[in-house]
């Protein structure tokens, strides 16, 4: 179903609001009641503001102090080995500010100076090498925008609606522009053995987080990155150097990367055997499910972003992504999946990057069961939770890319529900 045109009614509504003095936020002002914010000189127009040296590194204004990462205290025993969540409900566009981008640590975020940084390549190579940070800067570099999603994103929703907020159900994701050196460049510099079918990548933190990656992927699009969104990586994102593995689960994006070993077989580490495998209904587990399948979520309206302005023009917006390609289409349903309207993509989808979608509509004040459904350029269509359960049961944690449902009440408030 195609989106119905709302432009004329929207323009008429907004024009009427301007002529009558109706406030879209509160709906109480009128032309007969002068607005002191317009008719009176305000403090911010009565004196001088801050000088250019007030904040040498720019910070968000105090009025946006609620737009922060959040942790779920009961999720893990300690925040040293835990995760926090991107406030996706409060952001727009697709690029995630580093200060809002989710964190996942296995033994805490470490401080490692550039001068102390070393990256070793060993194993099945002609020349085992050790690179300093300055060495990496001398190689030809590339810039790419990619999303990083934890495999456990939405994992708590397998058995039913659990957490009330897009930040908590889908916030283990961020989307940034990375700058770095293609891994294949460094492997070629070391003279990797073509008989080597795998690389094992390992981090410098105390957990020694490590993952095996097929050589085909390593030579394709993996980056050894040292910048994000144009500036140095933040400590919590692997400063000074991390791995970027486009489209694949975030646990493989090893931070503080210190070693890359070429081998003829996977290492079978803890993070790819007892963890980050998909347990099925019969107790068996699937391995090597690296790619993040097409997924989407409505970020507003949502539990943390309710409708505040009442009936009339409403912008429904959200994010879609696919680890197998680019998003080509997103549909939105207001009735729990009975009917669908095609949303407007802010720009054409990009491979392994977030895509912003909008549905410009009119809200009549009735309850809505909001859903979004993403499709990528491989032809894959985002499944319902029931469709996933038919294959994987209720024992899984990772790779839950089901269609999410928000119940939007007539008050404008929203909550996490499940359609069965």
From TrEMBL:
Top-level taxon: Bacteria
Chain ranges of the Oxidoreductase molybdopterin-binding domain: 111-268
Signal peptide as annotated in the record: 1-31
Cofactors demanded by this protein: Mo-molybdopterin
GO MF annotation: an example: heme binding
PROSITE patterns reported for this sequence: TAT
Listed transmembrane segments: none
Keyword Ion transport: no
Protein name as it appears in the record: Sulfur dehydrogenase subunit SoxC
Lineage of the organism: Bacteria, Pseudomonadati, Pseudomonadota, Alphaproteobacteria, Rhodobacterales
